[in-house]
């Protein structure tokens, strides 16, 4: 069996009292994705499975658990990108759909078929999607109206990044947007290069990369953080590259110079063929590096390979004394994926 690697995250504020629930959500999403990968699915299918699980949780700001806008309605953003084809699908301010990532995935599929201009076909697919269970959670309204958590509690957009048995990468992101946002406001999860990015190695790019972002949509959109981080990861030292990208392209970005604090987080996966025969299709020689970084108070991360019996989860927090929006945390690791005996 060929091993694979998967991760999921949300950046914002994660209270100690709910840490168990946040971690459990991440574990379930990891397991769903890895189950698909073990069955031979491609990265795109696995990342979709993970996002569905995250959207179905009442503890995340996506799908079922989405924030309410000023009118008391739910409007969701989502996007997905395939690193092999570079095709992309996204939806913004979507209402009445339980799993927005499924609609984004359908749009990506249509782009791959070259049929986006086929009005009747698209309309039929949208009508089918609208038959899914409509999301309206009265308990969410009560929770938001009586809650005392800080504003960053509403920033925990969810996302996932995957590399499959062939070394292809995919990324996805889903969000319910800011709490009490103006109706029809669209955040980074629906914008190209802002919410997620996936790109296989090719030509002058030695590394395949997958990125998913979370946090304040305005900050992530104005910096196009997902694509910036992907580009930065083409240098040799992944940890240093991500650190500099977060410092120079995000916290210190001239596009955010007027902001008192810059809130966001990223998960990044990069992989490359290692060993003597880098042109080989042998998955045994795949080196994977996985990192996460955030300027929010905390970020919940889960990761798993098909070698693992269960997912590992971690709530990353800023160092003591650090100020959210002005400081950052960065962690990660490296693994070499190969065929089991």
Automatic annotation (TrEMBL):
CDD domains: Taspase1_like. Pfam families: Asparaginase_2 (PF01112). One of its GO terms (cellular component) is cytosol. The record marks 156-157 as: Cleavage. GO terms for molecular function: threonine-type endopeptidase activity. The keyword RNA-binding does not apply. The active site is at 157 (nucleophile). Keywords: Hydrolase, Protease, Zymogen. Residues 127-152 are annotated as: Disordered. One of its GO terms (biological process) is protein maturation. It comes from the Eukaryota. Belongs to the Ntn-hydrolase family. Intramolecular proteolysis generates 2 subunits, alpha and beta, which reassemble through a non-covalent association to form the fully active enzyme. This is Threonine aspartase 1. The lineage of its organism: Eukaryota, Metazoa, Chordata, Craniata, Vertebrata.
